[in-house]
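Pipeline run #58 for the internal structure catalog. This entry was flagged by the ingest filter as a single-chain record with no existing model, so it goes straight to prediction. Upstream metadata was stripped on purpose; only the residue string is passed forward. Reviewer on rotation: M.T. Logging verbosity set to normal.
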Amino acid sequence: PLGYSSRSLTWSCGLTFVMEGAMMRLPSKRWFGVAASLALLAGLLMLAPGTAAGAEAIGWSDPPRPALAHRKDAIYFVGDSITVEMFHSGDLIRRTADARLKLSGRLARVGLSAALAAPYVERRARDFPYLVIVAVGTVDCFTGVPATTFEINMTRIIRALGPTRHVALVDAFCRNSRPDGLRRERQINGVLFRLAARNRNVSIHDWSGYVLTHPGTIHPLDWTHTHTTLEGTRRRVAIYLGIADQFAAKVRSARA
């Protein structure tokens, strides 16, 4: 849905913070009821005046459209709560349409890790378009997933999509999310850069570098220190569409 006001986007971002906290910080069984209550509260608040009716508080799992399989004028997004915020703002859908790209679908979920994304991609591999942007790693960093496990799951995603598609990876900014955050960020991003170096159809794009050089990108009220301000969200959308523009330029050059 489009047409979000700044008020409704603030609700969306705030609920994302709460939901991600519940999902990643309260893993024991006795907290499942708390997380469920928060999910119900999120649903009610998202229907409050000023929000877009029918919006999902924790994201979307829209499968790729078979009619757009391997199409070079289509795009698919895989990402965690940061990507959810980008869709809630409406900017990502608008900018995708402005770039004359068809939205094949989106796997954008709060708490999405590489382990959760991999089987989803594997089950639907034949239906993805040529360009797939994969922005996962922040959750793996935040929750302490071993780098070796993260690499296995990311490799599954890349192999499932195959060498005939372009996979654009976005690195993670998570150095302030936990006491050993900087070390974890380097490990997670190290995996992403190695995968890009090993696979000719994979590229890596520097989100962490942008955050470091642009104070105010991360929301000051986000206790995970990973989610963005409104301006940060707009900038991340611009980075995503920049990836699409680079790809489109390569396609035009190849045809010339």
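catalog note: The first helix runs from residue 6 to 25.
catalog note: Confidence is low (pLDDT under 50) at residues 1-15, 22-57.
status: ready for reviewer M.T.
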